[in-house]
Amino acid sequence: MKWILWLCLAACAFSQEFRPEIRKIWDDKVMEALELPLASGLKPKHVPADYYYRIPERKVWKTYPIYPPGREPAGYFERLKTLEPELAFDVAKLKTKADWIRAGEQVFHSANAFTSTNFSFTQVRNPEWWTATEAKLGKDGTLPYYRYVIRQKGKVEVTFDSCASCHSRVMDDGQVIWGAAGSIAFGKHWAYQIRKEGKTSEPAAGLLKLFFGAPWIKPNPLDDFSAMTLEDVARHLASIPHGVGARQGTSLRAPAHPPDLIGIAGRKYLDNTGLQLHRSLEDIMRYAAINGFVDELTLYGDFRPISIIHSSQSDELPPPETELRSSDTNLYALALYIYSLQPPKNQNPNDAKAKLGKKVFASQGCPLCHPAPLYTNNKLTPARGFKVPAEHRTTYDVLDVPVGTDPELAMQTRRGTGYYRVPSLRGVWYRGPFEHSGSVATLEDWFDEKRLKADYVPTGYRGMTPTRAVPGHEYGLRLKPQDKAALIAFLKTL
Ligand code: HEC
Ligand code: HEC
User: Fold this and answer.
1) Are residues 228 and 288 in the same domain?
2) Are residues 197 and 177 in the same domain?
3) Closest residue by CA, ligand 2 atom 13
4) Ligand whose nearest atom lies closest to the CA of 431
5) Is the beta carbon of 239 within 6 A of some atom in ligand 2?
6) Rounded distance from Cα 258 to ligand 1 centre (Å)
7) Co-location of 117 and 54 in the same domain
């Protein structure tokens, strides 16, 4: 009998052997067709493959948790200083798919950039930083967004701009959901940094152009901000709530909320504006590659964001050795990890109220755009003012029914395609704020008619004025109170 058991174990082990198929993701033809043209018709040009592959690869170092001041185990930081640098994993030792996913998890937590702890973007040893950034802690008492990293013995640095920083969510009870719509108040971190550098009276024009410049749009969206100082920018950034980020390519006025990465496999378009196609695992790798700062090198008409940093001409690319990219292998592991993410267990009851809500959902026409099982039709809807070009009707999945939300992100930015994609409603119970810029904090607010009026104080991202309307998507706004409550109860079961 025993040998049968051994045979079975050997066979099982064999069947677990995993053969990764790692393809070169950066191919000029593929990159050209990867993204939608921008709203004005402009087609940005990513760097050519021969340049891309000459950029050195970023290493994935082993990382260590960060504790708030006063809560660190005795001698912890001193011990970190004695450690040798160590890579997070050895590709040669990855055997099963689970091994690869675990390696991808390390990539998810690894830095896009590094900052040292004595003066840095993340001054995590400074109590003042914790107050200013309103950083939340996980149940285990550590900071989810960043980790310590050692690249050189004796020098403890902080991972910066890891995927985990914007794509991890701390629930009220401290549970951390990796990959969920992130809850970091990224603007507060950035504002803290700007103020710490002490140049707040200087003009903000250069910084704004680097992150938000879109000079081909007429009138230039940055004209409104031309008088801003760095302190003005910091003040605005500090007002942006948890779960919304004025990331590169959005706008100070129209930031974006990071989408939930859990369940991404079913989505055909990425980003709130449906900027990038998603047809395969490689497209997730490409998304991560582009957004890991390689988009600063992209040519938008005759504007290349990186030229602001190097004070160079737009037609010049910096020497590739001065940049960093993620290796195809690490991006592959990362994408496998993202695909493997599972939603937390939903405790919301599918009771009589939720069942009534399901009927309300159907009767209000929601399934036209949010049909089961994904609760999205995976289509793009034109933003207010965007005229769908004829060729898009055959190339992309367009539902020419505008929902009328604020058009700025879709029309006036480098991520703006003229569309908002229909988001999946799966997992709305553990995400928010809602709407592309996270303008309302809760589902109750999203279905509250008051948000349509100019004197509304948005409960999520406020904007640059004390009050403003959060227009559009008027579905379900005028229901009887008990039907509205039932609809929301139903949505919370998804
Ligand atoms: C500074 C914050 C930040 C960091 C760091 C970050 N993201 Fe994001 N991510 C966002 C925001 C904001 C969006 C939405 C952008 C938009 O709608 O235009 C987004 C969108 C995405 C999407 C599209 C999801 C969807 O359903 O549309 C993917 C995939 C993604 N991020 C993966 C990653 C990965 C992988 C990393 C690490 C390499 C990463 N992100 C790092 C903020 C961040
Ligand atoms: C014509 C298509 C369409 C219909 C009909 C529609 N929606 Fe939407 N829905 C969208 C689009 C597009 C967005 C994203 C808008 C934006 O962010 O600017 C959205 C966003 C949402 C959001 C916010 C999701 C998030 O993560 O921010 C919820 C919740 C929602 N819809 C629920 C519903 C419900 C419930 C109904 C019916 C009462 C409904 N929708 C009807 C297209 C539609």
Assistant:
1) yes
2) yes
3) 422
4) 2
5) no
6) 6
7) yes
Find out whether the beta carbon of 258 lies less than 6 Å from any atom of ligand 1: yes
Domain that holds residue 336: 28-340
Q: What's the 257 CA to ligand 1 centre distance in angstroms?
A: 9
Q: What is the CATH number of the domain that holds 448?
A: 1.10.760.10
How far lies 48's CA from each of 30, 51, 298, 300, 385, in Å? 11, 5, 10, 14, 33
pTM above 0.85, yes or no: yes
Same domain, 234 and 260: yes
Q: What is the mean pLDDT of each run of 10 residues along the chain (494 residues)?
A: 51 68 96 97 96 95 95 96 96 96 96 69 88 94 95 92 94 95 95 91 94 95 95 96 96 96 97 98 97 92 91 85 94 98 96 98 98 98 97 97 97 98 98 97 98 98 96 97 98 98
Choose one of 183, 370, 440 to mutate for the ligand 2 pocket test, by most ligand atoms within 8 angstroms of C-beta: 370
Query: Do 294 and 363 lie in a common domain?
Result: no
Pairing, β 419-421 against β 113-116: unpaired
CA-closest residue to ligand 1 atom 37: 163
Q: Is residue 234 part of a domain?
A: yes
Residue whose tokens read 């969206």: 221
Residue 67 beta carbon below 6 angstroms from any ligand 1 atom: no
Q: How many domains does the chain have?
A: 2
Residue nearest to atom 41 of ligand 1 (CA): 163
- Cα(261) to centroid of ligand 1, in Å? 8
Tokens for 221, please give them. 């969206």
CA of 387 to the centre of ligand 2 (A): 20
Q: Which helix (H) or strand (E) holds 204?
A: none
Q: Is 163 in the pocket of ligand 1 (CB under 6 A)?
A: yes
346 part of a folded domain: no
Does residue 155 share a domain with residue 298?
Answer: yes
Let me know whether 264 and 299 are in one domain. yes
Q: Are residues 436 and 463 in the same domain?
A: yes
